[in-house]
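Q: Structure tokens for this one, please.
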Amino acid sequence: MKLKNCHNIDDFRGMAKRRIPSPLFHYIDGGADDESTLARNTKAFDDFDLIPNGLADVANIDLSTNILGQKVNSPLFLAPTGMSRLFHHDGERAASRAAEKFGQYYSLSTLSSVSIEEIGGLTESPKMFQIYIHKDRGLTNELIERCKKANFNSLCLTVDTIVAGNRERDLRTGMTMPPKFTPSSLLGFAMRPRWVYNYLTHESFKLANLEGKTEKGSKEAIPLVDYVNSQFDTNLCWDDAKKAIDEWGGPFAIKGIMSVEDAKRSVDIGASAIMISNHGGRQLDSSPAPFDLLSDIVEVVGDKIEIICDGGIRRGTHILKALALGADACSIGRPYLYGLAAGGQAGVEAVLAKFESELIRNMMLMGVNKLSQIDISKIRKR
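A: Here is the predicted structure, written as tokens:
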């Protein structure tokens, strides 16, 4: 199958499954426990319909907007995802370049396989860096300072990963970072010789932002669950978030907000944006879908803070529904990782092009030509 024959995100998912070893595919694809929240993240959008208006001038569609103080070409941006080198040897470089080509915001993870400094100098488009609070607080402060020097535009603190969710697929496949051959994973790697060749003939996997700071996950293979549980601080509290905001001194998002109460606290401590997110259904199973919470959160803080809907987005119509309920932007993780695994930078670009074409076509069908026209009047609950 070729990228040109991928007509939706599920097609990219299928191509990724055929390209990369089973442990890595299921790391991208899986969720926590019974994966009920993972499924609900996308299913939630089906409970709402978009309302079209006819006889409108839709000759010119404008997708541009502002996210965290930056003018971008789309309300969709690339969420932070770790260890992209495992899915394609160009990893974060490929994703960042694709985002720049489409004029979109790109987010780099603390657990990336390419450094802050390299990504900072690689592209000119807006960039966000996502941090976790490590037990070594000095390391967190150091990462913030490095982002300042590398001219990142914003910072994002993920607050829903003080311990790792129960990702049973990873346990079954023997997923570690970096990958290692084990009885449970050997067959999955052996069946993807092209990936193995590219993995072995390109630069070694590393957690580039943590190189020299921790052996775990770079030189020492370890399950991601064990890394999170050994390195991230379970004492994370609102004071820590406030200190990070003050230390950064610029646009700052808090990712993992899943209640009205936490949204209000985010406003109180001076956050610029919140990302309503359940970590792609990978943490607390049976938590709501971000889209399920959107209306309640918008009602309370929608005029006080930027709101980003993160999770389950697979169609342009999903983005339009989130905007209609009051979101300022949306972010994707799995969809662009499927594209990356399927075809590197070209695969990510194909995914972004698919979303762009769906947004333009569906805005025309709705009778709107700019994002500001998409409001509560354009959506109804079934």
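A few notes: The mean pLDDT is 93. Residues 3-381 form a domain with the TIM Barrel fold (CATH 3.20.20.70).
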